[in-house]
Amino acid sequence: MGSLVVLLADAPSDTFYTKSPHWGWLIVFYFFLGGLAGGSAFLGGLIDLFGARQDRFAARIGHLLAAPLIAVSGVLLIVDLNRPERFWHMLIQNNTGEPMIKYWVPISVGVWLVSLFGLFSALAFVGVAAEQGWLGGRLQGLRTLREGGIGKAISALTALTGISVAGYTGVLLADTNRPLWGDTTLLGILFLLSGVSAAAAAITLLSGRRANRETLHWLGNMDAVSSLLELLVLIVLVVSIGSVVREVWGNAWGVLVALGTVLAGILIPLVLHWRPNLLGRMSVPSAAALVLIGSFCLRAAVVIASEQS
Amino acid sequence: MAWQTQASPPAQPGPVSTPIGSPGPATPPVASPAAQATPSTQGASGSVEVAGAPVQTGQYNAEPMGFYTDTTVCIGCKACEVACKEWNQLPASNGGANLLSGLSYDNTRRLDGEHWRHVRFIEQFDESRSQGRWLMMSDVCKHCVQAGCLEVCPTGAIIRTEFDTVVIQSDTCNGCRACIPACPFGVIEVNPVNNTAMKCTLCYDRLQAGLQPACSQACPTASIQFGPIRELKGRANMRLEQLQGQGVDQARLYGADDSIVGGLNSFYLLVDEPEVYGLPANPQLPSRNVPTGAGLSALGAAALGVLGAVGLRKHRMDQFAEEARASAASGAVDGEVRGG
Ligand code: SF4
Ligand code: SF4
């Protein structure tokens, strides 16, 4: 007890007096996949709304990624509950039957965002499947989901809910009194940026050589810009709450952030972005794979390191 | 779930079955006690048999009620812990097997889903162990006037009662565990028996029947005192003056005024810094970060959106230019054909 008291008396922040919610690897995977899904839909929607015809191939990849990933995310979220059969209590008040939402609570807003994003991304997914001719018979008509005003509306809504899902997960962590999470307001934007760069990387990887060169160039730029901003935010975070970071990341998790996220996930891909000849044909796919790994490491280090504090 | 319903004696409405005001959604993020408290769900007057003794019911008014804990008179007997476990039928941990902490005379170690009271031992010794000081403090949910747990609960399971206390309704909780990191004091944990988040209810079932909480009733030194908050504050201030008059200048109240999360309906008299007792010096609501965090994220999304759109716009313009050139060329060819 004595040692505990001394430890607490020296705590760099009041957040060290609290208990961890046991958000473990399921939540890490959810944050990663949700960010990836949101980012993919965001990029896909941007292409639909502002891009040229030859960019649409990459947009389709984005939509084909988003819907299944957010569906898996939903399952992860439900399984992580201690009482999964009551997941709907977050959407409908169990004792009144009225809708359940607290606009000031990220988790509450997030449950609705994930649901709406699931709906819109599923519509976009079906539309793409019809466009590609994967649906037989009269279902072929569902390609209207990608055309005209309806198509634009679906693209815009998917992009908007998607990018919100990518960002709210970090804000959710800020709405706590836990070390690191509750000590900064930067996790939301950090996760959002890392989600978009991971999505750009994933779309690049899956497109291979089939996507238009201009589109791949745009994806590479989106990846680079979000990675650079991510690095900037990470630096501001470490500088602004140095003593907390020392406590939470002054261990293997800190090494993971430094090597996995910063070096492998940001710096090496940036070098490959500007010197694509370094690895020849492998430059683009290697950079993309590293970005994805970096994005996963970031979420693991943020979630699990604080859990263990 | 038999365990849950057994928690209240048969003749009384349990916390779960009595609807008290509206849950979460009607509650603003930082509400005044008046706004959070739902007026008057007074128990019916009369008397009921509880454990053979006739007890007057409905004797408490719907006003802020709570605990004042004078840590200076706590002897560490843990009667409160036992009384709490007994009344609330909380299970033994480790299947009832003894598990010694090995670091302390205190083997409970923490508040959690099956320990709603915890008598904290602060054992301070010098190297030789010839000099020492013991501090003891019966820790419990603080029933914060601005409660972080209540603020974040996304199912509306956590409510504020007519006594200004904070109660988790186990039939609504789905075990998302958001309340655990939201509490600035680390009070809540999941109870392994029913797999929902649990903590002290300030014996809501007993209060509704006009009984005082089990712990304060069991406390043999009146270290834990129960009553209307305004009355308790008076008592606490008198005791503080008395101690300071005796030269205990480290004596202080923790949570008796509204400087700590709007006030604690379970407040303490301490004789050292709060940190020494494992209490945060400046606990805060988790929502303090949300507006800035959400705003910055929105800013990031907008920046990426604009950058992305500008980049794509160029592709579209190129496409249009290409098409225009192509149609102009084909137009010229057409013209030549017709002219020729
Ligand atoms: S002490 Fe923690 S659990 Fe108790 S009311 Fe305050 S925030 Fe909620
Ligand atoms: S674990 Fe239960 S009480 Fe706690 S926030 Fe989630 S639903 Fe509410």
From TrEMBL, chain B:
4Fe-4S ferredoxin-type domain location: 65-95, 132-163, 164-193
**Biased composition, Polar residues: where in the chain?**
35-45
Q: Where are the transmembrane segments?
A: 293-312
EC number(s) given by UniProt: 1.2.1.2
User: Has keyword Nucleotide-binding?
Assistant: no
What the entry lists under CDD domains is as follows: FDH-O_like (cd10560)
Keywords on record: 4Fe-4S, Iron, Iron-sulfur, Membrane, Metal-binding, Oxidoreductase, Repeat, Transmembrane, Transmembrane helix
GO cellular component assignments: cell envelope
Q: Which InterPro entries match?
A: 4Fe4S_Fe-S-bd, 4Fe4S_Fe_S_CS, FDH_Electron_Transfer_Unit
On whether Membrane is a keyword of this UniProt record, the answer is yes
UniProt-recorded Gene Ontology molecular function terms: 4 iron, 4 sulfur cluster binding; metal ion binding; oxidoreductase activity
Ranges for the region named Disordered are 1-47
UniProt-annotated location(s): Cell envelope
Known PANTHER family for this protein?
FORMATE DEHYDROGENASE, NITRATE-INDUCIBLE, IRON-SULFUR SUBUNIT (PTHR43545)
Name of protein: Formate dehydrogenase O beta subunit
Give the organism, scientific name: uncultured Thermomicrobiales bacterium
